[in-house]
Amino acid sequence: MAEERFDYSYDYRTVLLFIYSALFWGVVGILIGLWISVQMWLPETNIAPYFTYGRLRAVHTNGLAFGLGVGAIFGITYYITMRLCKRPLLFPRLARAQVYLFNIAIALAAISLLAGATQSLEYAELEWPLDIVVVILWIMFAINILGTIFTRREPQMYISLWYIIATVIAVAILYIINNLAIPAGWLKSYHLFAGVNSANVQWWYGHNAVGFVFTTPILAMFYYFLPKSTGLPIYSHRLSIVSFWSLIFTYLWTGAHHLVYTPLPDWIQTLGIVFTMFLIAPSWGAVINGYYTVGQDWEKAKNNYLTKFFILAITFYGLQTVQGPTQSLRIVSSLIHYTDWVPGHVHMGTMGWVTLTVVACIYYMLPKILKTEIYSIRIANLHFWFVLIGQLLFSITMWITGIQQGALQKAVNPDGSLKYTMVEIIAKNYPYWQLRTLAGVIFTIGMLFFLYNIYMTVKKAKSKSS
Amino acid sequence: MSLHQLIERNPLVLILLATITVLIGTIVTMLYPMFRPEMHPKLEGLKPYTALQLAGRDIYQREGCFYCHTQTVRPLKTEVLRYGEYSKAGEFAYDRPFLWGSKRTGPDLARIGGKYPDEWHYKHFENPQAFFPQSNMPKYGFLKERKLNPKQIEAHMKALGFPYTKEEIEALKDKTEMDALVAYMQVLGTAVKKQ
């Protein structure tokens, strides 16, 4: 095949700009996370009106899900798509414009949330003018991704591209429907859906934001970068096929597990729980594929520092996708729902699975783009251990305190009266909330090692080229 | 060539199949229920929010109260004991969006209406720690300093199609955000008769 000489430098620059933007918002989001973790045990750190827990929490979740998460997804997905399609992006300038619009949108999102403009829908807090900007960003992304895939120079689409296509479609459907609202001013709207129906639409969206922002694009990265960094082919193509289709089929049925024991009709709750249990199978399809891929030669795990990032990430994914379905069971839900157990669960997915995969992709991709080596594998190893310890400490303390909260709320005296008041239960959480802040600090130190390593790698590449 | 190889080589086919695949669960669990009456029940005693109550609900949303307080009592023994009658689907017909929340750092508020006198709420919002030294709730005294904007609230009432009178809107100009939030607290759960 006559290899045409493509110039990727412009598109790679766009990818890098997305990565740098994602890292910037990641720092902002993590620092706000630390702050609100302190607010849990030191209410004096609430600075009304703009910096109370109620407003900062949305900046934390949106900053990390959309700023770090989606920013990294845009950049890394473009990189993967170009590699797998063997051509540059179809619309390079559109992608570059997307970087700038993305940063403007995230900045405006943060400001509007601090100002209290919120739809009060978790992970869909942004008010309607910003929703329109998000939809425009997503259309820009879809045009470039699908356009590049349609004009690809490699006939077969690798697994990662299937996951990317599913992401592009599903996020568009989810985001647009759940954000349908009646505008009542420039920064105020009311959900188009009311009451029970509003809850059902929101959690159909909410859980699939997990499915199609924190799962499918991350699996696309995992399936691409794991073989790349280990040099080992994916263990089973058939397993990839089966788990892909069953995953994207099942996810959409599961939202109601967020509404167990609420006034939502029982049949929708039960359907949600059943499909959530089934979701273990396709999730573990990817876990097994990951493990058996590296299992072809475990030496690679020793020799290549990136292998352990991917293996730990997929391990967290495996744990997450068993714990999640367990939580959906009515008996378990009645104990741990509405407690700190749930943030413990969520952060295993975000700090463990998503962030570990994303940083490993950046470790692989950045030196390739800059035509250099990573600055320090030693620092990367330190980064690994810090985030692992920080993440485990975070989740384990929250699981313990969550069970405690649930159990104390259920505790009754022999005469049948309640044993504890709410404020007595709150008082017992303080040591765990303080430990959680410590866990966050350890995780943050790990991420600072990462940022330093990236900064020095970029610096090294610059001094080499000049 | 196997069937899946065909899919792997045709993005259009993949796009169509993936779209259909994600739409099945969407239709069964989200779209279809929307057309069933059980998703749109309304208790007899339920009334739309008054202008002052809605202003309070807007503030409850703005301040992110739902991140720490739920508004749904589960049909569990100790929960009913702690908060009162469990939540009914028909209580939320005027709630856009629902504010059931997902975390109970503080207590559930679905049955808070009428539990304490207004005066208690004013003082508690200003300084929760004065009542409960171990509470980690932020102080919301600044709401007392802020006047309501009647024009804005009228626009909100219109958007939702809630009935109101000119006098009701007029009267808002002397009210503070704190007045509104307390009015909202006091209406929560009142559609269900106390046992």
Helices and strands, with pairings:
The complex is a heterodimer of chains A (466) and B (195).
Chain A: H1 9-41, H2 53-85, H3 92-114, H4 128-150, H5 159-178, E1 181-185, E2 188-191, H6 195-212, H7 216-230, H8 237-250, H9 266-278, H10 280-295, H11 299-303, H12 305-328, H13 330-336, H14 341-370, H15 377-410, H16 422-465
Antiparallel strand pairs in A: 1-2
Helix pairs in contact in A: 1-2, 1-3, 1-16, 2-3, 2-4, 2-7, 2-14, 3-4, 4-5, 5-6, 5-7, 5-8, 7-10, 7-12, 7-14, 8-10, 9-12, 10-12, 12-14, 14-15, 14-16, 15-16
Chain B: H1 3-9, H2 11-34, H3 51-62, H4 77-83, H5 118-126, H6 128-131, H7 150-160, H8 166-171, H9 177-187
In short:
The complex is a heterodimer of chains A (466) and B (195). With 466 residues, chain A is mainly α.
What is the subunit arrangement here?
A: heterodimer
The two chains with the largest interface, and their residue counts, are: A-B, 96 and 81 residues
Number of helices of chain B: 9
CATH architecture verdict of the domain at 10-192 in chain A: Up-down Bundle
> From the helix content, strand content and strand pairing of chain A, which structural class follows?
mainly alpha
| Main pleated sheet of chain B | none
Q: What's the end-to-end separation of chain A, in Å?
A: 35 Å
Q: Cα distance, first to last residue of chain B?
A: 69 Å
How are helices and strands ordered from N to C of chain B?
Answer: HHHHHHHHH
Rounded to the nearest angstrom, the radius of gyration of chain B is 22 Å
| Portion in strands of chain B | under 5%
CATH superfamily of the domain at 10-192 in chain A: Cytochrome c oxidase-like, subunit I domain
CATH topology label of the domain at 10-192 in chain A: Cytochrome C Oxidase, Chain A
Unreliable sequence segments of chain B: none
β-strand percent of chain A reads under 5%
* Structural class by helix and strand composition of chain B: mainly alpha
Mean pLDDT across every amino acid position of chain A: 97
